[in-house]
Backbone:
């Protein structure tokens, strides 16, 4: 029977997966819009493809963080104290990105827009890179002592494998974002995104292949519950390959669906490989944080379960409705808000 602490681990994994899928294309669009658009109008079209969605997508990051705090206080404390500087950079980038979205169109001045375009770029490329670094460190483990405290500093998180993870995840988000643009634009703007996707996809495929191979060699994430789970990173790579095939055939919906499968399979690989651990200690398995020694009491988890399992369907329904309402392609200047 599923324990409440196990249920909450699944819910947190679900929230992070949804965040990476939804915010992944947000990050990708924000990264490429500055370079893909040839003038202010084209840049506005690209930014407006995610205009109705980008801020709502971040609700899943906030939900996952809040759930982690309440359900696994030891996990939250160790993670946020050990990754403090990385998360501060990530938070600053997200704030900069949000401000840039709101301020860019307020003044019709080329220098003003150039500054906020740069802010949007850095605010969109830094978070996925740092998430890739963080997820890779989850896979390899970090030095956690017997008091559940993480030793070391920010620089030790930036080892070569983690940097590869950051680059790989950023490339995935860029391809995911370009495929989303093809769903929301028409004509030359749409075709330009397809061409850009076809150029980024091979690099993303190669980085994912190298990342998975090193991950298989250096960690137990893909084999912790049996060698059969290697199927998940293979599925991620195959889906990304198919995305490129569909992009070439201008089957944009299928191509975007395949990049979505790639991110889901990759995130699932990490969380399944971690379970029942939530953080791996490189100082010995006895110091690992698990869903059993890092969780809150049963009463807290029970109350949280009743409340959350009631509210989450409404949040998902609302977000699904917003995607349905704004499902059309951008065709005119009157549709541009940002």
Residues:
């Amino acid at each position: 029977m599923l324990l409440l602490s196990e249920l909450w681990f699944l819910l947190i994994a679900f929230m992070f997966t949804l965040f990476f899928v939804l915010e992944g294309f947000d990050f990708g669009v924000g990264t490429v819009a500055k370079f893909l658009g040839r003038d202010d109008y084209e840049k506005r079209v690209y930014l407006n493809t995610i205009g109705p969605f980008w801020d709502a997508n971040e609700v899943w990051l906030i939900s996952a963080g809040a759930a982690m705090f309440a359900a696994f206080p030891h996990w939250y404390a160790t993670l946020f104290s050990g990754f403090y500087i990385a998360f501060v950079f990530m938070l600053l980038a997200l704030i900069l990105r949000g401000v840039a979205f709101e301020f860019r169109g307020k003044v019709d001045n080329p220098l003003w827009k150039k500054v906020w375009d740069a802010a949007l770029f850095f605010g969109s490329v830094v978070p996925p890179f740092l998430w890739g670094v963080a997820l890779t460190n989850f896979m390899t483990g970090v030095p956690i002592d017997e008091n559940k405290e993480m030793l070391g500093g920010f620089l030790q998180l930036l080892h070569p494998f983690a940097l590869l993870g950051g680059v790989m995840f950023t490339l995935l988000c860029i391809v995911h974002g370009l495929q989303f643009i093809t769903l929301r634009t028409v004509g030359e703007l749409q075709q330009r995104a397809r061409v850009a996707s076809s150029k980024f996809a091979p690099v993303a495929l190669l980085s994912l292949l190298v990342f998975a191979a090193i991950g298989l060699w250096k960690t137990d994430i893909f084999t912790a519950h049996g060698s059969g789970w290697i199927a998940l990173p293979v599925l991620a790579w195959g889906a990304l390959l198919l995305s490129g095939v569909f992009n070439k055939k201008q089957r944009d919906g299928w191509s975007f669906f395949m990049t979505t499968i790639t991110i889901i399979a990759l995130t699932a690989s990490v969380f399944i490989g971690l379970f029942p651990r939530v953080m791996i200690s490189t100082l010995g398995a006895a110091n690992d944080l698990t869903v059993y020694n890092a969780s809150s009491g049963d009463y807290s988890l029970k109350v949280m379960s009743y409340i959350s399992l009631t509210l989450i369907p409404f949040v998902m329904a609302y977000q699904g409705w917003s995607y349905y309402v704004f499902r059309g392609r951008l065709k005119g200047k009157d549709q541009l808000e940002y």
